[in-house]
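Readers outside the structure-tokenisation community will struggle with the description of the input data as it stands. For illustration, here is how one protein appears when written out as sequence plus structure tokens:
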Amino acid sequence: MLITICLFKLVSYKFQAIGFSEYTISKRLFGFLMPFLLLGMGVSLPKFLPNESFKKQLEIHYCSLIILTLFFLLSLLLFFSMSSVVSKLVFGDECHRGICGIVLLYTFSLILHTCQYNYFRGKFEYKISALLQFINLGIIPLIVFPFAENIFEYFLFISILTFFICIVVNWLYIPVVKITFF
């Protein structure tokens, strides 16, 4: 929370009034999209994982990733077909279509983060989940900030780094399992 407060102050200094407005509206758009695109997985994963065997936990994790990725791709298609309308609705003009798309990408990278975070919470591995949370939500936004020239680049860099961290953590700590549907 302290990092977020500091980040708001830094954004207001670096990007001035226009950039700060784009940043805050983008964060609100993210806050609006996240619960819809997460489909309740943030609550259900830690609730149901402890009751299952190791193989079943892995299947649940990978199935949730597949479902959320498919739902994200569907929402991405919907966004691209209505990007001007979404930009006009959120920012008041059609010039911010790129920022709306990047916020959608940022939301997807944090959805992957949330799935991994809740997988580790459901397995009672709180050290890994807390470290993942600290890196993706605390460190990456601060590291990316000096390199971004505008809000679009800021959210793009955060999305790429968060996605990369999620891939690495998944590869290192969560074994791949063949999913059986029946």
In short: The helical segments are 2-38, 41-48, 54-81, 83-91, 97-122, 126-144, 151-173. The mean pLDDT is 90.
